[in-house]
Amino acid sequence: MDILPKIFGNPHRVKLMRLFLFNPEAVYTVKDISKRGKISRSALTKEVALLSGLGFLKMKKTGRMKSWQLNGDFFFAEHFRSLFNAEFFANRADLAKKFKNCGKVKLLILSGVFMQEGGDRVDLLLVGDNLKKKTIEKTITGIEADIGRVLTYAILETADFNYRRQSSDKFIRDILDYPHKRILDKLEIPV
User: How far apart are CA 30 and CA 36, in angstroms?
Assistant: First the structure.
């Protein structure tokens, strides 16, 4: 259940707020926002005007080009960021459903930003057989638009993953040895 769009009255507003809250230094044009958030320009114009009017966004003008950035002085920015993080983490189990048409997914692990950590670790690891990479990339692009963050992810075939795990590959160890959440685990990897 998407709680925040119901509270804030609009899913576009929530996407837009997430985009700016989780990329506070970024400056976006309407075209950038539309592409990253997958929001139509007509809906976007209304929401940008509303959020600018509230002081959430500040406009920057370069010649005739207008762009927007999160207003660093907006008092509620950190409170909203915490609220948006909490809402996302409460619904992260729904992510497995988004990958149902991507092949035979056997393992889906969330780490990095999903565990409220940055760093060099991958945010999402997907393991399976007969994986449809284009479908997976499209699904991840949709997730990025929903959460307002660019994700680092890895896609591995089951045989490759098992070989890497058994040979204590650093990449796999960095995921499994640090905080992570197994959303789907048909491989039954020991903890």
Answer: 10
Phi-psi region of 22 (alpha: psi -120 to 50; beta: other; left: phi over 0): alpha
pLDDT (tens digit, 9 = 90+) per residue, 79-123? 988 888 777 667 766 788 889 899 999 999 988 877 766 566 798
Can you tell me whether residue 110 is helix, strand or coil?
strand
How many residues does the structure list for the chain?
191
Beta strands in 130-169 (DSSP E): 153-157
Residue 20 CA from chain centroid, whole number? 13
Domains of the chain: 3-90 (1.10.10.10), 92-185 (3.30.460)
Spatial CA neighbour of 67 closest among 29, 16, 24 = 29
Report the distance separating Cα 20 and Cα 175, nearest Å.
Answer: 28
> Could you give the CA distance from residue 44 to residue 47 in angstroms, rounded to a whole number?
5
Residue-wise pLDDT tens digits, 34-79: 988 888 888 899 999 999 999 999 999 888 889 999 999 999 998 9
Phi-psi region of 182 (alpha: psi -120 to 50; beta: other; left: phi over 0): beta
H-helix or E-strand spanning residue 105? strand 104-110
